[in-house]
Amino acid sequence: MMMVSCKTFSSLKFFTLFYLFTVAFAFTEEAIALLKWKATFKNHNSLLASWTPSSNACTDWYGVICFNGRVNKLNITNTSVSATLYAFPFSSLPFLENLILSKNNFSGTIPPEIGNLTNLVYLDLNTNQISGTIPPQIGSLAKLQILRIFGNHLNGSIPEEIGYLRSPSSLHLSNNSLNGSNPSSLGNLSNLFYLSLYDNHLSGSIPEEIGYLRSLTVLHLSNNSLNGSIPAPLGNLSNLSFLLLYNNQLSGSIPASLGNLSNLSSLYLYNNQLSGSIPEEIGYLRSLTYLYLGNSSLNGSIPASFGNLRNLQTLILNDNNLIGKIPSFVCNLTSLEVLYMPRNNLKGKVPQCLGNISGLQVLIMSHNNLSGEIPSSISNLTSLQILDLGRNNLEGAIPQCFGNISSLQVYDMQNNKLSGTLPINFSIGSSLISLNLHGNELEGEIPRSLANCKKLQVLDLGDNHLNDTFPMWLGTLPELRVLRLTSNKLHGPIRSSGAEIMFPDLRIMDLSYNAFSKDLPTSLFQHLKGMRTIDQTMKAPSYKGGGVYYQDSVVVVTKGLKLEVVKILSLYTIIDLSNNKFEGRIPSVLGDLIALRVLNMSHNGLKGHIPPLLGNLSVVESLDLSFNRLSGEIPQQLGSLTSLEFLDLSHNYLQGCIPQGPQFHTFESNSYEGNDGLRGFPISKGCGNDPVSEKNYTLPVKNVISELQYFQMPRIRRRWRNGFGSSYVAAYDVGFDF
């Protein structure tokens, strides 16, 4: 047995004690440094109350983990800290491997001293308020594997030094304001499997060197300003599962080499400027689950190879220049949940076999040149939520069985050539939110079974040949916001239902161009709660099916222009009763509908006085009471309508002085023509009792015209040039998105 001398034992004891003392001293130094940093915090939550001088940092402090008595990991994510990194003890934590400060309120810049953390493996600063540039010193962190600094306000370019990291596996720099081009040095990161730079301001081309990153599984460069073509070497990334390049300015054709990406499950190239045909090779990606190629300038037909994509769940081809028929092999895509290809040049019939894709949730083929009848087999799709075949050339009858698809939320067949009657069997428990059959050749009555659709928000049956009386029973639908029955053969008086609450959430009522007659019942307007409150937070109906958002648009006539308005319910509340045979007086209760933006009652037989309560319509922009039999004076209260941009009171029997007000001074004489008893500005007859007569108002008006000739007056002239005597005369279509 080897004997240990007393001298040797004493030496071991000394070095052990010295080591423990050194560790304890070093640990104390690290703890003190962290406490000094904490002292700079403007705010933090109770979790960091454990950081005290009297407690053990390694065992008692929240978020601190030690190894061999030295601080090894620091994780204070989501602790409500408000501070900067300027006082962080970079030089006092030499053994720190994990630094996680995410989801707090750190601000200021990343100090260059971060390069002192030479053992750092994991750096996570995501979701803070950090600004400034990425310090090049990060490139000297030889052991760094994961860098997560997304969700901040970083700017400037990505430093070339990032490409000098020796073993990074994940770079997540998205959701910042980084600019400039992607450094080619990124191609040096041979171990990288995750690269996310999306939602920045990066420009220039995608470096071909990225094609050298054979370990890469995720490449996310979307929502930037990248240009140039998609590099063909990306086809070398054999492990790639996600290729996301959408919302850029990429041009040229889709490289056929992408067909080599055998592990690819998601290919997102939409919202670019790509051209040429879709490569057949894309159809060889048998692992593909999501394919988004919309909003480019792709042409040619849908490749036959797409029939191989048996795992495909979402196919997005919208807003391209695709031609040809919808191929029957689409029906082989039995996993498909979303088929979305509106706004192309597709023609031919809608395949009957689509009814065999049992899991289909969204089917949208609007704005094409499709013809033939609606396949009845689509009614077999029990999971279908959105069906939009609008703006095609479809004809024939609507299959009666469509009313029985209980999952259907959106049914849009507008602007086709459909004939026959509406489905009569809308079932109890229906999920229907939007029904749009506008612009067809439908006849008959409005089916009473629509009263079963308790979730219905939008009903547009305008521009058909429906022959019925007013469906007052629709007023029982609690969520109905849009009711458009314009341009049909609806007739007769609108009778009160006797119900206490009718149309409680209605925002748009368009009954124009029918043959409704008799007096307007007060009960039609007195329960319109949705029009009694100005709610700027109200949003248009939108629906999500299969991960795709769908939003209604409604065509309205306002200020003489026919507008297709998207998100209309966020701002617009409309009543249009024009071009009917209504008689009697204008109900004063309309003055309670203070959210009204457009009120059009022109071309009827209304008589009596204009209700002074219309002066309460503080946000009304368009008021058209022309071509009636109204008499008396124009209420002075209308002069206070500061939002009014279009006014037409022409061709009535009005008399007296025209009210004075900031908006009334902008209307031309056409607004009042055909009322021989009116006087005052801007018509030729003066109004002696006016505070501002024609004589003394002419000069300031000319001055105003001179100052605003490039803004306001061109609008007014254009307004009259397009025929505002009748708000539908010479109207033209305008794309409109609020």
Automatic annotation (TrEMBL):
E.C. no: 2.7.11.1
SMART domains: LRR_SD22 (SM00365), LRR_TYP (SM00369)
Membrane topology, as annotated: Single-pass type I membrane protein
Location relative to the cell: Cell membrane
Segment forming the signal sequence: none
Location (main, coarse): membrane
Keywords associated with the record: ATP-binding, Cell membrane, Glycoprotein, Leucine-rich repeat, Membrane, Nucleotide-binding, Phosphoprotein, Receptor, Repeat, Signal, Transferase, Transmembrane, Transmembrane helix
Keyword Glycosyltransferase recorded: no
GO cellular component term of the entry, any: plasma membrane
GO biological process: anatomical structure morphogenesis; defense response to fungus; plant organ development
Enzyme class, spelled out: transferase
MF term (GO), any: ATP binding
Limits of the Leucine-rich repeat-containing N-terminal plant-type domain: 30-66
Reactions catalysed, as given in the entry: L-seryl-[protein] + ATP = O-phospho-L-seryl-[protein] + ADP + H(+); L-threonyl-[protein] + ATP = O-phospho-L-threonyl-[protein] + ADP + H(+)
Occurrences of domain Disease resistance R13L4/SHOC-2-like LRR (ranges): 280-512
Cross-referenced Gene3D superfamilies: Ribonuclease Inhibitor
UniProt keyword Metal-binding, yes or no: no
Pfam families listed in its UniProt record: LRR_1, LRR_14, LRR_8, LRRNT_2
Record-stated family: Belongs to the RLP family.
Name of the protein this chain belongs to: non-specific serine/threonine protein kinase
